[in-house]
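User: Before I run my own analysis I want an independent prediction to cross-check against. Here's the chain; please return only the structure tokens and, at the end, one sentence I can use as a sanity check.
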Amino acid sequence: MKYYKCYIFPLFYLNMCLILNKPKTTTMKKAINILTFVCIFCFSTIAQTISADLETDLQKIVNNALPSKLNNPGVVLGIHVPGLWSWYGSAGYSITGLTNGYPAKTALSSDKFRVGSISKMFVSTAILQLEEAGMLSTNDDIALYLRPTLINDTIKNTGVIYIKNLLEHTSGVPDLANNDSCSIAAKADLTRNFTHEEAIFCGCVQGEEFPPGFTWGYSNTNYSLLSMIIEEVTGKPMRDYIKDNIIDVLGLNNTFYPPNDEISVSHMGCYWDLAPVTDFTIVDVSLYKGWADIVSNTEDLYTFFHALRTGTLINQNTYNKMFSISPISFDYGLGVEYFDINGDIIYGHSGDVGNTSGLFFVDISTPAFPDGYYMVYNYNYEGVDMINLLEVPLHNLMKGYVPSLTHIEERLEKKLMFYPNPSDGSFNIGLEKDGEYQLKIF
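Assistant: Structure tokens:
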């Protein structure tokens, strides 16, 4: 059903005069049958299907969001208005055709992609589920779950690191992505397999950045450690726990941990413009375990985030904890990023692993979108200026969107009710019709 804010001009003036000039003794409420034309000018304020003009404008934004300086760029986008409608679009290429001998391929809105650090939201959700189950606490010392030699010989922290410190990046553990020797080794052989401890060592060998809880510093190593804690607590591989308790629970049929280096289904490529362009499309994700190892698409990521926000995966108290920001955590919750566009709060997570991805909820309330909207996207290149190319234009369109004027003219033979009758200068008119609309005029 569509709901309208209506301006109604009923063409029944003579009928009204006949009623209103009745003597004062007339019964207070009467109903008569009339033949009338009703002209209704309506603003479709909460439509459950997207309008054609908005579809056109969204596709224009997608077309214009392609970076002009890159060869064969591509983007996929999903916009989801809670309880109303979803829209999917794409532009450009999924596979550039410039590397690895694969021909160029047009991007499809349903294409899967490596989600990068959006994977952190899944890991954080898993940790919080385990806390709800009483299997751990986010206030626990990580030494309760990790072997002493890893703590003392590899991490070498100067203070207690709590699970919460890992979740919000206040642990002081260095980022493995900043280890030049590990990065060079990984890029030299993209299919090289790293053990879990090798990946953690790549971060920790750089030395503590700051004492735990002192300040904020983004570190992928934190989520490598969290994935190890999940495995220690559950006794199963992290990917199996997340599959059983998140992916399968929500029926995310397009979300998975790739079983090998290559994604077998239709997917977006991963290209890093490093002069020359490095192709990360085929890559072993063992180095990225816990922080950038999931493959999904825009529809599934929306389903996951909406379920997270509406109580399917964690309860309200846990959700409030996850989305709270401590004074030192620099606009970062427990696996959730915050930023704003023109003062409007946006939260979720970005991701990159030779590409550029985003999963965000935009917290606005307008007549057209009273409960905000989700945006989910992926570019096939790393380092795209997604804020100015995509996020800001989308925000400007969605926040400023005013539904077009709709004119409905219909010949009705219906029962018309006046109250009070006789009138004292103001009255209500109710026009009822089984089916599409019920109207009141005040």
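Sanity check: The first helix runs from residue 13 to 20.
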